[in-house]
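User: Design a sequence. Structure:
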């Protein structure tokens, strides 16, 4: 079964979705990771009236635990992983970026301050099954 078949399921559309990891490692200060300001993010998203435009999800493990404090941004067929967020200013930049997207009505480029946190999650050229 192809993952690209037409899907009859419909839902409200958003510009994008931000998944903030709060899994087995991210935000776990008892394991030496910086805190994730979850309550602040949720209240800030509501205060800025963003939930129906850039959906915020607090998620379980997103996979790249070694990057610590991971954020996944989904839009269209694209995904941007960020890792290593360790200051409240990083999450503020994320909220400001989402607000800019809302005001522009489209996904705008990430702010320069978040670019150093981009991480490559997948190999560039997947190896076909059976290839040596
Ligand atoms: S706990 Fe965040 S990526 Fe695994």
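Assistant: Done.
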């Amino acid at each position: 079964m192809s993952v690209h078949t037409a899907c009859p399921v419909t839902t409200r559309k958003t510009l994008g979705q931000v998944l903030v990891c709060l899994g087995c490692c991210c935000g776990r200060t008892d394991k030496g990771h910086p805190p994730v300001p979850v309550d602040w993010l949720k209240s800030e998203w509501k205060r800025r009236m963003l939930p129906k435009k850039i959906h915020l999800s607090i998620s379980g493990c997103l996979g790249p635990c070694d990057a610590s404090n991971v954020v996944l941004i989904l839009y269209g067929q694209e995904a941007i992983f960020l890792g290593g967020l360790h200051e409240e200013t990083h999450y503020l930049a994320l909220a400001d970026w989402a607000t800019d997207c809302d005001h522009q009505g489209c996904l705008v480029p990430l702010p320069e301050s978040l670019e150093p946190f981009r991480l490559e999650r997948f190999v560039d050229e997947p190896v076909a099954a059976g290839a040596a």
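Residues 16-119 form a domain with the Glutaredoxin fold (CATH 3.40.30). Strands lie at 16-21, 54-59, 71-75, 78-82, 118-119.
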